[in-house]
Amino acid sequence: MRWPRPGRRPAPRPRHGGTPAAPHILALIPAHDEAERIAAAIAALYRQQRPPHRIVVVADNCTDETADIARANGATVLETRENRHKKAGALNQALGRLLDILDDGDLVLVQDADTMLQPSFLASAVAAMDGTVGAVGGIFYGEPGGGLLGALQRIEFHRYAREIARREYRADVLTGTATLFRVTTLREVRRARRAGLIGGGSSYYSLASLTEDDEITKAVRTLGYRTVSPAGCGVVTEVMTSLSTLWHQRLRWQRGALENLRDYGWTRVTAPYFLRQGLMGLSVLFLALYLVFTGWMLARGKPEFTAFWLAVGLVFVLEKVVTARGAGWRAQLLAGTLGVELAYDLFQHAVYLRALWDALRRREEHWRAT
User: Fold this and answer.
1) Rounded mean pLDDT of 259-279?
2) I need a surface site. Which of 86, 275, 323, 331 has the fewest CB within 10 A?
3) Closest of 90, 18, 23, 99 to residue 57, by C-alpha
4) Residues 135, 220: contact at Cβ < 8 Å?
């Protein structure tokens, strides 16, 4: 059941003919020292088939020329005031100052400064906004570059896009790269927090979560709304170029996901997320057992290869190659080697185990820029 909407709602903005106007679209770009990327992010918004009515760059504790470059490229700049809560705090300040001038039916795009939206993003997102949808998330793809590590991330992102398509574009996470919200959805989230029905403080985004995008997805779905990522809502975002930055990024994602589940508890909304975490744990266990068994067989000097297991291995290789198709033929060749992706999987499993261990110990995790 959708959460009730108490209080008086703003009247729809009329057109000259007396009929309700099309929704106003406000684009918010939180940015901390993004002078090298902010111009490209703004330019991609101007190239939209349905461009936003206003672009606001939320300059958060910037020490570079982010604000000046944003203004020079046609955006309004809003500078945060004594914000200590990173992206969530910056967005809460901006939404607190801007949402009062918007109607419930208007729309707010929140996107990262290192992300470029495909031209069809806003048109596709608006078209998907039926009465059951509270927010529309992007489908992210990795930008070129980054060497071998970048290629592995691009393969991973393309496989995730295929997974979204297979489940009819349902978004299990409203990606922080780019998400379009209904204004009324954001207002309902804040009311629910203030009423104590969901945690995370008393504003729009949770200040208690390491992964504000994962948490607000659960908040929106708890209110009874669907979250979707249509085919036309592609975005291109940066890839991590070192193991260190990738480790910290993925550890924050995984730790945040686990802690959000702990905070929300077992509900109809969170049950699939708990199941997914359990399956991830089983995959870690089974891969470890497989490697131990393989090592034991090799140590005995009696590796056995049968036609059946060779066929199983071939099917596994073909699945890896086919699912990497969207990332290009070089990515497919890389996927076909198996060994490199196996090492990448082990890296991801190490992240999962470290995040689980830290969450069980309730070890404090600090946000790190990536």
Assistant:
1) 96
2) 275
3) 90
4) yes
Q: Specify the pTM.
A: 0.90
Q: Which two tokens stand for residue 89?
A: 């705090």
Tally Cβ neighbours within 10 Å of residue 314.
10
Q: Would you report the helix, strand and coil content of the chain in percent, each value rounded to 5?
A: 50, 15, 35
Distance CA 251, CA 363 (A): 13
Q: Which long-range contacts (CB under 8 A, 24 or more apart) does 43-48 make?
A: 43/73, 43/116, 44/116, 44/117, 44/119, 45/117, 46/74, 47/119, 48/117, 48/119, 48/121, 48/122, 48/123
Domains of the chain and any CATH numbers: 25-238 (3.90.550.10), 242-370 (no CATH)
In sequence order, which ranges of 119-166 are alpha helices (DSSP H)? 121-128, 147-166
Q: How far apart are the first and last CA of the chain?
A: 38
Block residue for tokens 């672009």:
55
Torsion of CA 186, 189, 195, 197, to 10 degrees: 170
Positive/negative CA dihedral, 164, 34, 121, 148: negative
SS (H, E, C) 204-243: CCCCCCCCHHHHHHHHHHHCCCEEECCCCCEEEECCCCCH
367 pLDDT more than 80: no
**Is the model's pLDDT at 22 over the cut of 50?**
yes
Tell me how far apart the alpha carbons of residues 159 and 323 are, in angstroms, rounded to a whole number.
Answer: 6
String of DSSP letters for 302-369:
-----HHHHHHHHHHHHHHHHHTGGG-HHHHHHHHT-HHHHHHHHHHHHHHHHHHHHHHHT-------
Both tokens assigned to 188? 């309902």
CA distance 78 to 57: 6
CB 124: neighbour CB atoms within 10 A? 21
Cα–Cα distances in Å, from 311 out to 48, 306, 315?
47, 9, 6
Cα–Cα distance for residue pair 187/209, rounded to 1 Å: 19
- Give 237's strand partners: 115, 142
Which residue is listed with tokens 């078209």? 127
